[in-house]
Amino acid sequence: MKVGLIPIHGIECDLSDRWWTPWARRVRQALGAPLGRTLPITWEHLSNNRVPKKKLTWMRNWAGDISAVNDDKIRDFFDTQLHQQHAKCVHGGLIPLLLVHSLASVLAQQSLLRQPLAGVRLVTIGSPLWMRYVLPPLVRPRGVRRWVNGYSVLDPLMQLGILTWARITLPEADRNVHVWSGHEAACYLKRRKLQAAIRWAVE
Fold this sequence. Notes:
The chain is an alpha/beta fold. The chain is 36% helix and 16% strand. It has helices at residues 20-31, 58-65, 72-91, 104-114, 156-163, 185-189, 192-201; strands at residues 3-8, 37-38, 95-101, 120-125, 144-151, 175-178. It has a six-stranded parallel beta sheet with strand order 2-1-3-4-5-6, sandwiched between helices. Helix 1 crosses helix 7 (192-201) and helix 3 (72-91) crosses helix 4 (104-114).
């Protein structure tokens, strides 16, 4: 069965018009087969941070947008978009692979808790879900069949956890995969160890 890729970006300083294209290329490389469909969700226009991102440092971008977790407009957007893209996968006979980066992993996880979707394979990369002290309690959503979490001690977001003696892996995930990567999604997806875990997720 072919895979329907649902990529969702995190906080990026320079988001191109077709940011999901290199993601899809790496996932195809991981699977060793063409994707059935790529159904991206873009939420940059909903960000509460109105300052142009190119003028901010990475950490200020992330800190400025963390309020998105509690934004009703963004919550409604995610609920609607995830439901629609998942439905397209199911109706097309595709395995829904939800690939989420950075803060988008929090928004997607919360959306899946509000409206569980069946058969989802979830891959989180560079995720702040380990931040139990600033984010909602971490619960595994019903309907998630397999969950792979990619993390790196070189990722500035993970280094923040290391400095505060926090646990940066996610016990709720089926597999926590460490790779040598910065915070960029494309960098994570190049790593063969993570690609192997993505291949396992959709088996």
